[in-house]
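Support reply, case 0932

Customer input (verbatim):
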Amino acid sequence: MNEGKRALVTGITGFVGPYLARALLDRGYEVYGLVRRRAEGGNYKRLHETGIYGQVKLVEGDLTDLTSLLFTLDRVEPDVIFHLAAQSFVPRSFTNPLETFQVNSLGTHLLLEAVRLKDLNSRIIFAGSSEEYGLQIASEKHYKWALEKFKVIHPEPARIPELPIDENNPLRPLSPYAVSKVHGDYLMRNYYISYGLKTVVSRAFNHEGAGRGPFFVTSSIVRQCVKLKFGEADKILIGNVNAFRDWSHVEDIVEGYIALAEKGSPGNAYVLGSMRTNSVLTYILLTLEQLGYKVYEIETIDGDKRVKDPTERDHGDAFGLSFEKTKVDKLILDGELEFEPRDKGIRVKTDKGIVTIDFDPERFRPADVPILLSNPKKATEELGFRATRRLTDIIRDQINYYLNPENRVAMS
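Our regenerated output:
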């Protein structure tokens, strides 16, 4: 059906790019990838790992150089552009915000301008982010806490709770990265309204899998747990374990991107996600379980907070949705449990002894999004999108990646 169609993927050497390119190749697309010229040569490790190096055509170009982009579009003449390239590591956006805006905001604007100047009919799929939503109010208690912390909430919530999140939720970005993605989101829709470009925005919630960058929280968790299993580490270092995220498998989100390209309505934004939310602590505990540890109990370093059978599954209602979570997730969501920096850490009692989780103050962000939970109803009804893989499927794939000692040691 797609034989001869040309797809240009920016960010093809990143985490999602190779998965997307492989799925496009399987559907008969001719795939081009925009890569930046580097003095030391290209970093094509993920293209090799996914087995597609040599099957995609790599084109040198620079998102921050309009002339370079014009030459790229002349060479490729794409039917569809998947714009994934970005500085996407949230903590780095706090330490280097100008770089983040240069790549994410200016780069996106120049790409759109290049398409406009070339008068192309390409469909453009923009990889937005759930981080655009930022602060979403989960309860009256949470609302009072947020008012105390931030002094002002704009726009004010029209309903409480504001979860699950769909396309109509307010955008309240809490990081330079998130702000840059909001900018790109609005640029895409402005170029549709002003110039008729066929832009479609994806606001995908967190997506993970084998090969995710080593500094992202899920990779950091899995890598540390695997090292622990092999005696290469004696504890786990982590920041805020109370943060909840809607984690999907990267291959589910890639299917969503392709559905947007083939069926999405230009000028529209679409939420892509799993319709579940789990805590960072649950991600750690489930990773230990997948590595063969039986988890009996957790307690804070001072023994003040204690939960037996913390990974016991719960399928009860939360925010009007029924999804799989753990006992510890439910306790945190219900406001009955919270871990703070002053707790210093958690001891996990297992059949293989005690595993220590230390809270690292350096890993707490200046402003952190407390909870994200998606409502992808629009994408499901219009595109047939559905995330089918479970949280443990994601974790297993990441474990398999880090069982390779080279991947475990590469970024210690």
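We compared this against your earlier run and they match. Two observations from our side: The mean pLDDT is 94. Residues 6-212+247-276+369-388 form a domain with the Rossmann fold fold (CATH 3.40.50.720). Please reopen the case if you see a mismatch on your end.
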